[in-house]
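Give me the fold.
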Amino acid sequence: MTTIQIWIAAGVGCYMAMMLGVGFWASKKVNNTADYIVAGRRLPLWMAVGTTFATWFGAETCMGSSGTAYHKGLLGVIIDPFGAALCLILTGLFFARTLYRLNMETIVDFFDQRFGQTFGKLSAALYIPVYMGWIGGQLLAFGIILETLTGLPRMPSVLIATAVVLIYTYSGGMWADTVTDVFQMGILLVGFLIMYPMVMNKLGGFATAKAQIPPDFFHLYPRNASWFDWANYAQSWMIVGLGSIPAQDLIQRIFASKNERVAQASALVSGFMYLTIGLLPVLLGIFGRLIVPAEKGDSVLIELILGSLPAPLIALMVGALLSAIMSSADSAILSPASIIGNNLMPYFKKGVDDKTKLAWCKFSVPVIGIGSLLLALYFQNIYKLCQEAWTLMLVSLVVPLVAGLYWKRATGPGAVASALAGVASWILLTLTMPENYPHKLFAFLISAAAMAALSLLGPQSKQVGARPGVPAVA
């Protein structure tokens, strides 16, 4: 092994050991499902921000967005980080306080009690493939990084990542996720805040580097565009900007906050951090055009790390990338596991106690992780896996969430029709229309139309409260 590979291997080994230690420590704080799923509802602002930002700053932001920005500039990465920042800010402004007051553990609790068990079961089932796609993207990125930087074959790398994440998530649940996320966020911030100025200094400064890049790489909206281009542009903002508002991992962190003020502030602060720190991989991708040849553009971030940093800082940046990936993977695994244990399984076995729900949540962690691993090995495309996962939420769950909170006429049949029509139209349009057709946008509009039609034309259902003692949602 080379000196650099030794540094990387040692750093990764220490990092993995620390994550496992945190998991075992956190397991001692888990006594019930509330501890496991929402960390006992006691996260202060700094921990809520840390776990939210670290969860969202994942493989698609570091690896996917930097590679896309290399080829397409800012317009190519509207989905993430710009759409992701929009989602966090919208959640903080319009959803965090309202959702926190419901005193629930998962977003499916809301769907179940607002629209009834039929939609509750449907929404629970929809979340599983959503998160398996996202998890798969993170695990695949982990394998690619270690394969590229250490020469370790991709399969063993992915297996190692999967095993470590599953062990500490299984052991400590949301507590383990939160503590590791805060630690991982620290590594992320230090790594990128050191790397970015070093790369810019190598290029002669921001102004000098920017002058060598085509101006259209810094455009935030299309120029001389047709309606078709604007439709695709709007779709790019919506995929994550709206599509991830119902995300269980985001709502889970709202529920885990110690009060509604923290719930709101954590989403807003995380959103503004995403607009700043989240832009660093994008800018590195764009300016990487001046250093990295076109045939290596997809892996521009790794090429910059190897070509611009000394060995100790290479090890630090590898730790930062792995932190971004693992902080997303652990949260993404816990989210569907929480829904399976807390919501899906109790539908089929009534009257279960809290201890049984906790056992189901834990059992679901390795099941979800292994299923996602198989998905990652099949698809082998990080950005595609993540984008399709977000799209499924956009076309099926956004309209029911917004209507359930803000429209009294919304009904259970309307929610079911909205989700099914959105998913069916998305699949149909994807299979029958050209790839550049804004089919995600039209599927979302069809989902909204189905909600309106069934709710207005069908029988009005009884409004359901959140929990005993909690006012009706709508």
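The chain has 21 helices and no strands.
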